[in-house]
Design brief:
11 helices
Length: 196
């Protein structure tokens, strides 16, 4: 694993790729959008050149992003997903849908093997706070574009999260998102809690 590139290094990579300097604002935006991942920098630059959002004016490159997941990245995520079992694919989709799943939720949903597969494929990571998260936001959008929504798992996770007493607004918002995925109308209490 490589350490994320600093913004200045992102600028240098673009300079090498494009043959010219990238303005400071664009460099910061690209560093944030890519999380400093060199592969993502290159893919975003290719996609931005193709869609015209990266253009050169008076010898300086400017990027006005409308960040979409480049097709090549979706293909890359697709290749990673191809090696997973159906359980691994559903586990990835669930994590991508809700941003984070605790290890206790993984155990209670009986998706530990799927999470382990997804971790080996580099799509999810287990963090120090005992949560499972997608390794990069671009992976999340690619996974959600390629994998059928895990409606049954989402419903079960919604039930688990409803049983927890918490003032965490992120938990309430994730409940609304989960319930929306199941196709069942959310409970009024879920909507009210998510709004606060």
């Amino acid at each position: 694993n490589l350490a994320p590139l600093a913004a200045v290094d992102v600028g240098r990579l673009v300079e090498l790729s494009c043959g010219g300097q990238l303005d400071a604002g664009s460099t910061r935006r690209l560093a944030v959008a890519s999380s400093g991942n060199p592969l993502l920098v290159v893919e975003i630059v290719r996609a931005a050149m193709a869609d015209g959002s990266l253009r050169q004016e008076h010898g300086i490159w400017h990027w006005d992003p409308v960040v979409a997941t480049p097709t090549r990245l979706v293909d890359l995520v697709g290749r990673q997903l191809d090696g997973l079992s159906p359980v691994g694919r559903r586990a990835c989709a669930l994590v991508a849908l809700v941003d984070a799943v605790t290890l206790d939720e993984v155990r209670r949903l009986d998706i530990g093997e799927g999470v382990a597969e997804a971790e080996r494929a580099g799509l999810v990571a287990i963090r120090g706070d005992s949560t499972v998260r997608i390794t990069h936001p671009v992976h999340a959008s690619g996974i959600l574009a390629l994998v059928e929504q895990p409606t049954v798992l989402a419903g079960r996770l919604a039930d688990l999260r409803r049983s927890v007493t918490s003032d965490d607004p992120h938990l309430a918002l994730s409940l609304v998102r989960l319930v929306g995925t199941t196709g069942v109308a959310p409970r009024v209490d879920d909507l009210i809690d998510g709004a606060w």
